[in-house]
Amino acid sequence: MLTRTPRWGSLGSVTLHWTRRKGRRFGEEADIGGEDWVLGEQCCPGQQAWDSQCRPWSHQLSSGYPPAASFYASLFEAIGKVVSTEARAMYNVGLAGLTFWSPNVNIFQDPRWGRGQETPGEDPLLSSKYASGYVRGLQQSDDGSPDRLKVAACCKHYTAYDLDNWKGVDCFHFNAVVTNQDMDDTFQPPFKSCVIDGNVASVMCSYNQVNGKKACADPDLLSGIVQGEWKLNGRCVLQFSTLHQTPEEAVAKAILAGLDLNCGSFLGQHTEAAVKGGLVDESAVDKAVSNNFATLMRLGFFDGNPSTPDEAKKIAAAADATVLIVGIDQSIEAEGRDRVNIQLPGQQPLLITEVAKASKGNVILVVMSGGGFDISFAKNDDKLQASCGRLPTTWYPQSYVDKVPMTNMNMRPDPASGYPGRTYRFYTGETIYTFGDGLSYTQFNHHLIQAPKSESCQNLAFDIHLRVNNAGNISGSHTVFLFSSPPSVHNSPQKHLLGFEKVFVTAKAEALVRFKVDVCKDLSIVDELGTRKVALGLHVLHVGNLKHSLNVRI
């Protein structure tokens, strides 16, 4: 078997006394059937080791924010597939593990948060779709079986975490005071989607307190909601020792709350003493062992080490397209090093020509460089497309952050105190750019074809049909957003996202876009007690400048 380079953390960190009884001590890695299990690595921007060093030869893909800005739902899963395929390849040659601390699906509610770049933005629906899509891309095996894992993903950081170190307040000591309404309406949906829709292998609890309780030691959040209500098919993990009591009490409280794994050494050092001291029963530790080994089984650690080169050849021979990556690095262009020409160096032009001749289908040419090249064969390419990225967050003026403390977790505005609220759903003040803003080289118009004017709560769903017209001279992709402004009850959002679709429309042509609206889910709001209910009365649907009124009745 291959020898893995040790990484910090271990399977035995939460079950050390159990493994010692069996005559085996887990070090910084778990030795499973002769193989080393690297506990966890990062893959937010692509393959990384725990020390954040990029894996050689891996794609460095954008993390949550840029893909979310595309509003291209299928892209989320596609990125996950690329990362997991490379992870398996790296694992096969001893360069990576199979468990990853990704994705980060926290709500990016404050623009000052240093880790906001890792997240898919401020909107719960967008974040939920990104979460489930990226997780499916990472985890889904070739046969599509939910019992098998390509790699094990982890949705983090559960929950209400978006502060690291602000004016002397750090995430380890911050108490996020969150209303039931904001919890169910804003902070929980991405994690719920991770578990239920994405079937994620693990959920990482956050460093902070939530309403006075450590998130990693709150049985209501972990065993009650994640493992109980949502039925997590995996384990709850803790990244660092964030519990500040005596070590043994902290271990007991965490395990009894539903924690299965600590990827540092904290639980590994103190679990045995906690069991011997009667603070936690061994059966609770055995439950954590079962959850961890279930993940190993789904990853295939007990399936041997099959080799399938013939299968790989068949796949390559049947490929409908070829992706060819060419370009230069900083040995050719960098500070103090200008290029002498704008041609691809070496035999790369010949390589492109020969690959194009041999390819069964199209050749997708990816040029990696800082500057452009003279690639003459692409000069008259008729596949020119418009830029189509959209912002997944609100861009505020400096005056906003000057007034709003980062520690205030309330989403909704408070006129009495002058608090303006957060995100496009509640903030009504001045913005630099708002959620969904973006540029295009062409102009798109929307026309409503079909939508009801009145709908009964007894009807579960209805359809909205739109025609999108590209009025410009350039073909391009366009993101169609469907928003709803609910009745003004229970401090409801001024508007919220019901759905989004990306369509490609050639110049002077049109495309049909369909949305299915679930009355109970999409037209509901969360009241002050955290209860979700359908809002009766007038809802206004928005698509671009187009508005349509809908009366929801009993």
TrEMBL record:
Superkingdom, natural source: Eukaryota
GO biological process, one term: xylan catabolic process
Molecular-function GO terms, alphabetical: xylan 1,4-beta-xylosidase activity
Pfam families for this protein: Fn3-like, Glyco_hydro_3
Keywords: Hydrolase
Signal sequence extent: none
SMART domains: Fn3_like
InterPro entries reported for this sequence: BXL, Fn3-like, GH, Glyco_hydro_3_C_sf, Glyco_hydro_3_N, Glyco_hydro_3_N_sf, Ig-like_fold
Stretches assigned to the Fibronectin type III-like domain: 478-547
PANTHER family (alphabetical): BETA-D-XYLOSIDASE 4-RELATED, SUGAR HYDROLASE-RELATED
Protein name (record): Beta-D-xylosidase 4
Organism: Vitis vinifera
Gene designation: BXL4_0
